[in-house]
Hints:
The complex is a heterodimer of chains A (274) and B (680). Chain A has 274 residues and is an all-alpha fold. Chain A folds into 2 domains: 1-116; 120-274, no CATH class. Chain A contains 9 helices and no strands. Chain A has helices at 2-28, 31-59, 67-89, 95-112, 126-161, 166-170, 174-206, 216-237, 243-267. In chain A, helix 3 packs antiparallel against helix 4, helix 3 crosses helix 5 (126-161) and helix 5 crosses helix 9. Chain A is flat. The mean pLDDT of chain A is 84. Chain B is of the alpha/beta class and 680 residues long. Chain B folds into 5 domains: 2-183, 2-Layer Sandwich (Beta Polymerase, domain 2); 190-329, NAD(P)-binding Rossmann-like Domain (Rossmann fold, 3-Layer(aba) Sandwich); 374-536, P-loop containing nucleotide triphosphate hydrolases (Rossmann fold, 3-Layer(aba) Sandwich); 540-615, Helicase, Ruva Protein, domain 3, CATH 1.10.8; 629-679, Arc Repressor Mutant, subunit A. In chain B, the strands form 6 sheets. In chain B, strands 7-6-5-8-9-10 form a 6-stranded parallel sheet. The longest helix of chain B is centred in the middle third of the chain and has 41 residues, at 322-362. The relative contact order of chain B is 0.06.
Amino acid sequence: MLAIYLVQWLVVAAYVVALIYYVRFFRSGKPVASTRAGQLLTLAAGLHFFYLIHLAVFTGHLPVTDVFEAITTCVWLFGAVYLSLEWRLRERSLGAFILPIIIILQTVSNLWLDFNHELPAILHNVIFEIHVLMVLLSYAAFVISFIASLLYLLLSRDLERKSLGIFYRRLPSLAFFDSLSNFAVNIGLAFLTIGVALGIYTGIEVSETFFDSWDPKFLAVGLTWLIYAAHLFFRRAGGWQGKRAAVVSLVGFGWVLFSFLVVSLVLSKVHQFQ
Amino acid sequence: MSILAYYLPFDGIAVENADCRSASPAPPSWEEELLALARQLRGRLSLPPSPEALRQAILDFALQIKAQAALRFEECFLHIGSHGLEFYLVAATPEYDSLNGRSTLLSPPSPPFVIHSNQEAVAQFFRSALGWLPNHTPAAAPVETFRRAYALASEQGLTGVTLQRLFQRGLWLYEKVRLETDFFRHAAAIEDVLSEVAGKIFGGLKERTALVAGSATALAPVVKALQQADIGRLYFALPGAEKSADLPADQRIVSLQEIARLPAIDLLIWLDHPERPLLTRAYLQKLMSARHNAPLLLADLTAQETRPEGIEKMYNLFFFRRQDLEGMVEQNAAARQQLETEVTAWIGEEVKQFYQWLTSTERFHFGSMVGRSRQMQQVFELIARIAQTDITVLIEGESGTGKELVARAIHQASARAQRPFIAVNCGALPENLLESELFGHARGAFTGAVNHKRGLIEEVNGGTIFLDEIGEMSPALQVKLLRFLQDGEIKRVGSNAVLQLNVRVLAATNRHLQMLVQEGKFRSDLYYRLNVIGIQLPSLRERPEDIEILAWHFLRKFAARMRKPMAAFSPAALQCLRRYAWPGNVRELENVMERAVALTGSDTLEVIDLPAPLRAAPNATPAAPRLPLKDIERQYILDTVAACNGNYDEAARVLGIGRTTLWRKLKSYSSEEGENDEKE
Lengths: 274, 680
């Protein structure tokens, strides 16, 4: 019991150390510092994975059954997705912006995660677990898109002001962030679609009357899907690549955060399964 | 040793066409040659010079310098960059020092020349490696011309240990500055800022198309900057559409009206132009909608303040005026100023370290100890460190590795340098004779000892005695030697008088002395008394990187002695030398070179001049001792860097690792060395 508390805070500590290196790299631009930062983040993600396994063994189910379990899994997925991108694109300037989100969410999860909450019988279901995983993966992709869009706007602000600020010096290029954000939204939307489809399927399995009352969570996810689908559509058809797409991505992520935390905790009745 | 740098900035030289090189009545001095060369090159450099032309120019001149000055200079190196022409000389002859670093050999510099000596010359060298010379902002890849020039000089055998060290430190410094600061990332011309901005918008420019519109006269810098940024395609719109001589050959020239039909253009650059007919809101809107709002960079490099109405509000259109770019250049200059002090401090540190290295090698740089390999450099450092003490040293190494040279070097570098040095081969004399040779004998000590005789140890009092092949010494003599080593006392054979002497003992062996100790053939107490400091000399096949430099050394030595105008090795001959296993080590190499220089008929040493065993040397080398993977990696990486002539990009490519990984590893090696130094 004590061990698992220790591990969950060690994970946060490891992310903080990695963040320090990423920030240092971003400020100095020394490639040498960046290698070390990447190694530290890999280490932290490894530790986090160990924590998730520990949690799964301890509770006897995948850590996706309540919102705080879902957060920590989701955070690990951000980390893993980001690391794979970093490795693929050889670009480490995003780390300094992604890690604060990871650290905040992981801390939230650590503080309120209840190891002994009772699990409704209906949730002992593989399809349900895949459903949650898919939705979480899509959220991880949306975070990447959010960060990319944010950096797009910061860089484009420097360019508009014709000032050689730190973003101008350190960030790669507008085209890079635009295509990264686009790529992440595509992936996220695909996962979200699969996740929602599986959710509907599980809902029908669980009870015939599941969709009789309107679940706020269901509405929230529907809206999320619509926002990102619109993002995709206008980018293709309306010539919205660049700044407008970035703003839509920011809005989408704001909504995701809102629905993830507020709707799940405060508004939802049906999705709490109580 | 003195180092001189002649710097000829192109700023001060008028361009001259090649045909203006009129026949002067007297053969021109090397200085006039250099000036003429600079004039020609200046003309060629206004456009990117072809590497072949540069190569030929450098080669011609370097060979001429060598022919004129071969006997006076040890090393020389000519570098032609975009900023000017530099000529470095390393001279060992003391006459330079006596004149406060000013040379009598070369006539004093006339106005366009800038001459630096010693520390200043070294600093100039490092600045040149960084492409950072007075009034010239650092170029993006200055080190390329530098590297090429050095490769040529070393191919011709014009460089030696000193320049090599300088060159390597220069590249190291360049890599450090490039990877650890933004020094090379502060563009200083508006054209460079423009291509940087394009990079910030589009990423790589390989897939992008640029259109440069305006008068032909102002094209060159923009075109150069875009080409350096690796632009995909270039279009030109010139008034009158005449073909200009300043343009690269395969140009697409379009008329102003056609521009409207070219939606594929990503960069639209407007140069100084009497009218700007198309820079209107309506036209730009049409262009943007044809591009489906894909980003467009529009740069207006005319000096006009006005801008098309409403242009700020157009989506995905990035508009830069000349003033904007100039403002960015100013911001860059301010940022660079801070870095310049930092880099200047690094250069100063590098110069200081270089001079430390130079003086530490100078102290034993006599006779013919040559070696650039890490093993030999370590031996040199050890010698420098222990020479001042009176510690007994045991030198171990195969036959021909230069054990006596090490002993002499220790003696020369010690406080006893002015006192005598005697070398005794213990294996060459029978036991009794050796005893009386070393310790002397009293009158009547044995048959034939008609007079008393002073031994060599007594003779050398105050100096150094070198006992070669100490493993051959008989047990009885070993006892006597041990007593001398412990108390500093000897007795002549057949005499009871004790003599107190002050002699430093250096010993050497080509046999494995510890094994003899284990077999009981050598006294262990004597072994430990001798082996206070042990120097293991590597065999030549353990340090193949020294073969070439030694071969050059002996070639010069014997060519001078036999008065032959030897200039070079044929590549095949060098290959043979490198491949051979050298069982006789440096001595064998020396003999081979002496024979080859004596036999050869031409001024280039060919394979045919080498003895038969070398020509047929098998590729196989004897099995090397097994090493930890880490050491092998380190050695392999350092070798690869050396083989790539210090080209870190190339080395990283060959090794298949990232440039930063390579840099990190090299940095850790150099800091390890630092730690080892502190421990010792």
